[in-house]
Amino acid sequence: MIKCIATDMDGTLLNTMQQVSAENREAILQAQAKGIEVVVATGRSYQEAVYALADAGISCPAICANGAEVRSKDGEIISATPIPKTLAREVAAKLNKIGVYYEVYTNEGAYTIDADKAVSIMIDIVTSANPEVKPEDVAYEAGARVRDGLIRTVEDYEVVFSDGSLQIYKLLVFSFDFDKLEIARESISDLEEITVTKSGDENLEITHKKAQKGIALEAFTAIRGISLAETMAIGDNFNDVSMFERVGKAVAMGNASYEIKALCDEVTDTNENSGVGKAILSVL
Fold first, then answer.
1. CATH topology of domain 4-80+212-283
2. Which of 118, 131, 238, 261 gives 20 to 30 Å between its CA and that of 270?
3. 134: confidence class by pLDDT, cuts 50, 70, 90
4. What is the pLDDT of residues 181-238, one digit of tens each?
5. Is 8 a catalytic residue?
6. How confident is the model at residue 129 (pLDDT cuts 50, 70, 90)?
């Protein structure tokens, strides 16, 4: 019997317009009404995750920044696994030398030095998960990152690194130059405290090695007395693999790549066709 359901957001729970469909929302509410713990597990900051969930009237715990932070449904920080600032500076220096754009995710949200690129990031995440969608069709919704203050602009990331109130959760690298992305990956591969994954074709997600969705989900379920065998995870990309490897029921989205589908027990419908809702209803 499934007692916990963990779902990714972009390319999974959310459709191309960055919204939770009525079918997905109803399925989540039904699961919660039956006492099943539903948690989102996302690469997003808490601020960006809640933005989309609140619009759908959904309240649930959140595993954010690929597991670097876990929050209760009321927004209380349950756990945090930040990158030490000296290490974050070292990673940033390598990325600066290569000349790739990146964002810095913290306990207070995400930061950018280029607002236009910040919008491009979200467009990339959406179109990578939904190749049939045209970038211009999602541009307005993606622009909410800047318009609604979900990501803040600074002139230099040292402002973030030197702020004692901020913890560094993730560096999100973005480039259409795949050679540069590979160089970036290789340049930090020798940093033992770091792990690198991706949520789109043109990005890299850099977190502390212990900040992974699967590790965070394992701790989350343990606290609640739920076994991983009683847990279902739903996702579409490589930053979901650490969950798939641990849970009793791994479900890939219909829009996921062949590699991701091959790792899972089942494949549900696409995010455009409320695949999350269908997967949830199948176990209720």
1. Rossmann fold (3.40.50)
2. 118
3. confident
4. 999 999 999 999 999 998 888 899 999 999 999 999 999 999 999 999 999 999 999 9
5. yes
6. low
Locate CATH 3.30.1240.10 in the chain: 85-208
Judged against a pLDDT cut of 70, whether residue 126 lies above it is answered with yes
How far is the C-alpha of 242 from the C-alpha of 21, rounded, in Å? 26
Residue with structure tokens 């699961």?
Answer: 31
For the chain, first and last CA: distance in Å? 9
Over the Cα atoms of the chain, what is R_g? 18
Please state, in angstroms and rounded to a whole number, the distance separating the CA atoms of residues 146 and 3.
Answer: 37
- Cβ atoms of 77 and 69 closer than 8 Å: yes
- Which one, of 212, 184, 203, lies nearest residue 42 by Cα? 212
Q: What is the pTM of this model?
A: 0.92
Cβ atoms 2, 251 nearer than 8 A: no
The residues of the chain that CATH labels 3.40.50.1000 are 4-80+212-283
Give the fold, CATH level 3, of 85-208. Answer: 3.30.1240
C-beta of residue 174 within 8 angstroms of C-beta of residue 121? yes
Q: Which residues contact 85 (CB under 8 A, 6 or more apart)?
A: 161, 168
Give me the count of residues in the chain: 284
